[in-house]
Amino acid sequence: MIEIKNLYKDFGELNVLKGINLSIHEGEVVSIIGGSGSGKSTMIRCINGLEKITSGTLTVDGFDVTKPSELLEARKKCATVFQQFDLYPHLNVVDNITLAPINVLGLSKAEAQIKAMELLDSMAMSDRATFYPSQLSGGQKQRAGICRALAMNPRYLLLDEITSSLDPEMTAEVLEILKLLVKRGITMICVTHEIDFAREISDRIVFLDEGTILKDMDKQSFFNDDGGLMEPRIAKFLTKMATI
Amino acid sequence: MYGSEGFSIYDIILWAQGLGVSVGVFILSMTLGLLLGVAIGLIRYYQIAFLGKTLMMISEFLKNSPIIVQLFLVYFGIPAVTGIDMTPIEAAVWTLSANTAAFIAVIIISSISSIEPRQLEAARSFALSEFVILRKIIFPQAFSVSIPLLVGLAINQLQVTSLISVIGVYDLTRVGDIVNQRTFEPFIVWPIIGATYFILAKLLAHLGTRLERRFSQHKIMSEL
Ligand SMILES: Nc1ncnc2c1ncn2[C@@H]1O[C@H](COP(=O)(O)OP(=O)(O)OP(=O)(O)O)[C@@H](O)[C@H]1O
Ligand SMILES: [Mg+2]
């Protein structure tokens, strides 16, 4: 379980997260939506310890990300897919995927490569295994990014707007893959602007507004007229997203 | 001793000795300079506070003062202050190493900062240790960026070795001076000495190009 209690995050004078309380259980698919600048990315970055939290507690399966000695364990349970892919440009696709499994999980090179090839195969990417990131299309880069995350056997998959640098065709391609993962029962925390997609795959929707959680509801209730839509800000946000 | 005595077979031996000394000092000071320069660069990159500042001040002095002054300072100054005796060659190697290190530190820092930092965050998020990140992600990329700069520096430092004759090292330039004074054939002696440096520099450049090809495969591939 990922447990966030009373989380505050400031950047100097700027209070970005203001008292977040959120628990994510294994097997859940939680979509995080909200306006630009509401703190979604910051929250994800706090979970994987890339951002130091100002106050509050954040634990991943009991490991406290604020303690250097526990952060590594917490990080081993989460794997992130990034908006800008952030692959290692000097390594080919397979080496991108196997770097952490070899050096963190202690797999042998051969084991890690077999695993990587299986993952690539499942995403119709095996013919790109020896390509460098600069030789891939955006959609292919993101599929490689997903493989890199899955290769860590994460308990939690963190996704931060992973389709927003992709064109619609490639977006569809990546979303299909995510749907498959959800069917297999992965736990997913998914920051997204794809409302239809969130509606289709999520168990829960969390709506973030200016650093606070405005609504944290199961999907059914959220999209009901007497659910999330009761909040004017959410209604406004959803209408805006629908017209894009 | 005075007046033209012509060349002899021993001049070739002298030339070879001078070449050996120049190349030896160059290789030693480049190697030491590289180790030291990388260390200084990393200390700066990881912002080890006091050490980084002090080393940077020393580097600034080394980069911005004439190498001859540095040679005199080390050769005459260090024995005077510490009582440690130094041969000219030792003084030359230490001075050139420190001087090279100062320039290499700058190259290291700038090539590390050319690496897109988000990929390092990604690596950290996968629980990779800072050491693995340094070895497997930062180093290979920084190295491929820095090769042309390092080769340029090496070629420059090779020419700089010709200055060590002022503290009495019998390097290639000193040999040229000796032979020239004996034979009075400057238009034979100096072109030969010059050509020797030239060939060494070209060899370095060639080596650099090969290294660059090897370590920037991902860049070359993307240009295909
Ligand atoms: N490193 C930082 N330093 C200062 N301010 C920051 C930093 N990172 C984020 N912020 C600020 O924090 C706020 C929230 O940013 P964040 O990236 O979390 O928003 P977001 O909800 O992910 O938005 P978007 O939908 O546009 O990605 C923004 O106002 C942003 O400017
Ligand atoms: Mg964001």
Mean pLDDT of chain A: 93
How would you state the average pLDDT of chain B, rounded?
91
Determine the most extensive contact between two protein chains.
A-B, 28 and 23 residues
Strand order of the largest sheet of chain A: 6-7-8-3-9-10
Small molecules (ligands, ions, cofactors) in the structure: adenosine-5'-triphosphate, magnesium ion
Structural class based on helices, strands and sheet pairing of chain A:
alpha/beta
Measured distance between first and last alpha carbons of chain B: 63 Å
Helix content of chain A: 25-40%
Q: Please state the second-level CATH architecture of chain B.
A: Orthogonal Bundle
- Note the beta-strand portion of chain B: under 5%
Q: What would CATH call the class of chain B? A: Mainly Alpha
Helix content of chain B: over 70%
Shape of chain A: globular
Number of domains of chain B: 1
- Counted beta strands of chain B: 0
The radius of gyration of chain B is: 21 Å
Cα-atom Rg of chain A, whole angstroms?
18 Å
Regions of chain A with pLDDT < 50 over 5+ consecutive residues? Answer: none
Low-pLDDT stretches of chain B are none
Order of helices and strands of chain B: HHHHHHHHH
